[in-house]
Amino acid sequence: MKKFSKYTLIIISIILGIVMILAILKQIPFNEVKQAFQSATPLAIIGFLLVSITMMFLFTWRWQIITDTKKRVPILNLLQYKIVGYGISFITPVAKAGGEPLRAMLLQKEGFSFKEGLSTIAIDKIVDLTTSGFLFIIGILVAITTFALPEKAEVLLMVFIIVIIALIIWFYLMLIGDKNVLQKIFKLLRFDRIKKLKKFEKDIIEMDVLLISFYKHHKKSFNKVMILSSITWLLMFLEYQFALMIVGIQNVSFAGLFLIITMMGTAYLIPVPLALGVLEAGQISIFSLLKLSSASAVGLATIIRARDLLWTLIGVTFLLTHGINFKKAYDKSIKKETISSNNK
Questions:
Q1: DSSP 114-134
Q2: Is residue 341 part of a domain?
Q3: What's the pTM value of the predicted model, to 2 decimals?
């Protein structure tokens, strides 16, 4: 019954997403979207693909630096696991996290325990979030100084910046003080009072130990992953610049580009597989603010979704080569449970 309920919700969310897309296309004729692609050049298309591939390699390299503190894993193996996780996350309604248990399970092939594998992924995510937080602050400051925003909106954004800075400082002070920061967050969110989640507290403490160890005893590795995170963020701006060129948009300010990327990331946090409808609606709102074509907004959303679908197809192919049943993997990703390596 629970499985039925989960699948029912997924199906409903997909239907709603499709309805949203159809409603958008009713307002913005398909021919207009098609015309937006007529300005595409080989340079823009090749540039977009090359930057996307480079970013995936850098994400994998960052993860390898973390796993190397435990065991050496060939980067091509990690690349497969990374793409599998990325692809499954894209088609599950779990805010870019549905594929992470699969990555941890695949690491078991390299001699990691499931918990060790999951801890390397947690460290990878935390570093990514920290870097994103800093760059997000910079982006908001640029947006405030560039766009004529209402005074209340500016005040709200400044408060938001202060909160993010405070959280980042608090997080690293906890690490420096050898405090169990993940357990602290777990308790602050009152998860320890939920019976089904309480049993995971011991695992979270173990992950805290591994996180503190990585920060305290592998500072060179920590600095490397922070630098790689910053580089991938810069490449993301270039990637979206190429994507915009494909739909005929040449000149977008840094602040505008930041808003486009931020809205794209926000859309993927909505629990709808493939971000159906949400992706288009979000981009149309931002493009309207930037006084850009709505047809180009739909075109950009189409490009990003096509890229992620391609990674998903590659990921599913890798999944099958490792002898893992796709349906079972998908079910487990939705549940976010440990996958046994015997599930074939």
A1: HHHHHHHHHHHHHHHHHHHHH
A2: no
A3: 0.79
